[in-house]
Amino acid sequence: MHLSKKCSVFKVVLSALLIVALLQLIYLSFLSRFHGKQQRYRYSELFGGSAAKKNAHPEKNTRKERLRYSLSSGGIFDNSGQYRVYKNLIKSDFTTNQKPGSHSDILTLATHTTINNMHHLESLLERWQNPLSVAIFAHGEDVKFATALVYALSFFCPQIQALVDFHLVCLSGETASFPEQDREHFAGLEDCASVFSRLETHRDKYQNYAMSGNISYPNNLLRNVARGGTESSYILVIDIDMMPSADLHQQFLAMILRRPSVADEVFVLPAFEIRHARKIPSTKAELVQLYQVGEVRPFYEELCPRCQAPTNYSQWVNSHVRETGTLEVAYTLNWVDPWEPFYIGPRTVPLYDENFKQYGFNRISQACELHVAGFRFSVLSSAFVVHRGFKIQGEFHAKKEEENKQNRVLFRSFKEGLKTKYPSSTRRC
């Protein structure tokens, strides 16, 4: 009798477990089909198709059509004829809707990169939170990949939609096209985080100066493209793996509005590098604490201490900063060789010389021209930039010294050309 009851209970429990398992299988099958349908719709919405046209938001379609239009132009060649430039490949809402002369249009951050360093954009924008102009260099298969990924970023990431302008540079023999048939590259893209996860898979694939196919990285062309992509009165040009101090945009705006404008002045941000494991400091107080214990040091201290020494780090570290956080000029310097400061400058400053590529003399040449053109260098009291990681010997690509020698010869010729360009100037580099 007891055995019969136990068997009946066991059958009921077993039946219930089987029903639960069956329901779970049905639910998982439904989820799989739903996710697949959602992914197909996401892809369709991103890259075209009848479903997208029926269901997509008007602003998304507008963004897509603007990208198609930008690509249809075929870009323009740079002055050398070696590179093709797609300026404003994707415009931010800020650029599209901005009103000339507004205070929000005073300062833009301009930067440059390859697709393998694009993952830095997320943290840079999180810190900056204001207009940003990004020039990307790509070649080969990366042209298609870069075009699609920046479109996906502008599609899925609200802050990027709002603030970031993208420009694309490739070799003159290459062209960018709308990524309609690249479904295999974009499975799983469903939000902003998933796009940055995809970018992480290309992280540090190669160093900017050691690209496949013996391709030269046109850093100064990229800087000029990023600069030219904004109408702001002032521009800060840094590399994408550098981080400015927090609230720099607001502090600089307040400073500019309360002091008379000087056309021949640039505002220097002392440059540092931080040990990889450390969090990037937000304020001068945080940075000085790390500086005093050796976790932060002057930029290029090991590789070229003379290149940043004129900043006068000891004076800056010990200079008084108002507790209110007011930004001001701490002291003003004349340029001396071989100083290559990072600075905020008016949009009227001379462009970077695009003959310089790869490693060596690409920034110092422009700093030298600023000096000859009569600019003064005013060091800001509490603003700074930090490079992620210490720059150390042995981490550079194999041809670094060879490129440096070639660019040194080019720099000598460049300095001679400045005498003709600025005949009335008594300044020399």
Short description:
By secondary structure, the chain is α/β, with parallel strands linked by helices. It is built from 14 helices and 14 strands. It is globular.
How would you explain this protein's 3D organization?
With 429 residues, this protein is of the alpha/beta class. 42% of the residues lie in helices and 16% in strands. It has 14 helices and 14 strands. It has helices at 2-47, 50-55, 58-72, 93-97, 120-128, 141-156, 158-163, 192-200, 219-228, 248-258, 284-292, 313-318, 364-372, 400-421; strands spanning 76-77, 83-90, 107-114, 132-137, 164-171, 234-237, 242-244, 265-269, 271-274, 296-298, 329-333, 342-346, 376-380, 385-388. A 10-stranded mixed sheet has the order 1-2-5-4-3-6-12-8-13-11, sandwiched between helices. Strands 7-14-9-10 form a 4-stranded mixed sheet. Strand 1 (76-77) and strand 2 form a beta hairpin. It is globular. The termini are far apart.
Outline the secondary-structure elements.
Layout (H helix, E strand, L loop, with lengths): L1 H46 L2 H6 L2 H15 L3 E2 L5 E8 L2 H5 L9 E8 L5 H9 L3 E6 L3 H16 L1 H6 E8 L20 H9 L18 H10 L5 E4 L4 E3 L3 H11 L6 E5 L1 E4 L9 H9 L3 E3 L14 H6 L10 E5 L8 E5 L17 H9 L3 E5 L4 E4 L11 H22 L8
Parallel strand pairs: 3-4, 3-6, 4-5, 8-13, 9-14
Antiparallel strand pairs: 1-2, 2-5, 6-12, 7-14, 8-12, 9-10, 11-13
Helix pairs in contact: 6-8, 13-14
